[in-house]
Amino acid sequence: MTPEPKPKKNRRAPKTPSLLRGFKDILPENSVYWRKVRDAAEKILGDYGYGEISVPILEQTALFKRTIGEHTDIVSKEMFTFTDKGNDSVTMRPEITAGIARSYIEHGMLNRPQPVKLYSFGPVFRYDRPQAGRYRQFHQLSIEVFGNYQPVSDAEVIFVSYLICKHLNLDVVIHVNSIGDAESRTEYAKLLKEYFKSKRRLLCEDCKKRLLKNTLRILDCKEAGCRDLIKDAPQLVDHIDEESKAHFVSVLEHLGESEVPYELNPYIVRGLDYYNRTAFEIFPRLEKTKTDEAKEDSSPNALGGGGRYDGLIENIGGRETGAVGMAFGLERIVELLKQSGSSAKSDKTPQIFLAQLGSDATKHAFTLFETLRQSGIRVSSNFSKEGLKAQLEQADKLGVAYAVILGQKELLDQTVIIRDMENGIQEVVDLNKISEEIKKRLKK
Ligand code: HAM
Q1: Could you say which of 34, 174, 356, 418 would form a disulfide bridge with 361 (CB–CB 3.0 to 4.6 Å)?
Q2: 251-254 contacts: CB < 8 A, separation 24 or more?
């Protein structure tokens, strides 16, 4: 074995550049949960005929300005935007929908049988104020349906989102609302402005700004003072156009026919400008403790949200196209999965540990590892560790049922030792029959 380098004397360690604020590493022990979420989503989305799409992280800034909207918090405050070496303004995507819509137009997907159903996983970036469940880089699963104006599509997206949560055993409730068409929303925004104007001094600082440019977003505010005012504000559902009303009723009828647990929530207005008609958000259903009940604004973070966005494709130069979709925030889903006691064991957790002693055995251990792996046994090992004690300690930490020990003597005899990690009992078996012997024991 090559000797380890000796520690350098008087060495002043250079400072490790640290992780950026609001960014997170996903370590191997957590990847199990991420894999579970991905598997559940891919199973449900595959069954429902969705195809996977990947679009770039970096896009022209104009794409997001023209879809999400210039006056939204996302575009006005939170985008990672810079000028590239060609002097073009580019932005690290703050969501995936706009990129997928651009791709739908650029690849002529309008000429495919409609609706086109797509999904995408990936990182998104928002220069938000980091706090629990809120990051500057986070991951979304975006689910989009293009080429359909029917209420059944809205209901299907909500249903599929619910099924993904159900598959993961997450107890959720979906809050739905209708925000009508652009005209009725503009009229309603005027009404709302009038209402809040007289109460301006009672609003939080953010809402004072929203009052000028994005009045509807006040309805979404979590500040206790604002929430008190919101309760008596005129409600959007009472002011939406007749067609949107009929559309909403139909969406609710479809949902009523399904097992989706939903509630009407007149305050769901969404933080992106491209929506019309249906808007919804998914929340974990938390058992309320007494202290929670005492705290009026203990509403949890949304796990996901979405809605209909019929104007988006046209806004960026495509033909008029009905569309509806949603996105999950995957960090929040993973966190809830962990809290719900989901097991960290995966089908990749090793079943046995292969320990080797002496240089000849180490060389042969590669072949033995491959024999075991190819027979479907999940093996772990540490070829760079010399002592048996250290290797068995590692096997113990991994929680494997058996260790397979190959030493010089065993190699000569063409045998191998199987050690039961629970009681320490060791048996010598034929090297050529090792896979069968292990499988026999694992079955027990
Ligand atoms: P969104 O509501 O902005 O919608 O984001 C979707 C989800 O991403 C949220 O419900 C939340 O779970 C998660 N999320 C948002 N901000 C953060 C953050 N700073 N840290 C961690 N998680 C976060 C959209 O992005 C739309 N594109 C959804 C959509 C798809 N609408 C139609 N199609």
Answers
A1: 356
A2: 251/151, 251/154, 251/155, 251/158, 251/176, 251/178, 251/278, 252/176, 254/151, 254/152, 254/154, 254/155
Q: What are the pLDDT digits (tens) for 217-239?
A: 898 888 889 989 998 899 888 89
**Probe target for ligand 1 pocket from 26, 64, 95, with the most ligand atoms within 8 Å of CB:** 95
The rounded distance, in Å, linking the Cα atoms of 283 and 270 is 14
Write out residues with Cβ below 6 Å of ligand 1: 95, 97, 126, 128, 133-135, 138, 140, 142, 144, 271-272, 302-306, 309, 325-327, 329, 331-332
Give the H/E segment covering residue 361: helix 359-374
Q: What is the pLDDT of residue 165?
A: 98
Pair type for strands 172-178 and 137-146: unpaired
Q: Whose CA is nearest to atom 14 of ligand 1?
A: 329
| Residue 225 DSSP class | H
Residue-wise pLDDT for 10-25, tens only, equals 778 889 999 999 999 9
Q: Which residues of 161-171 are buried (b: 16+ CB within 10 A; e: fewer)?
A: bbbbbbebebe
Specify the amino acid at residue 355.
A
**Torsion angle of alpha carbons 256, 101, 53, 50, nearest 10°?**
20
pTM: 0.90
Chain centroid offset of residue 338 CA? 13
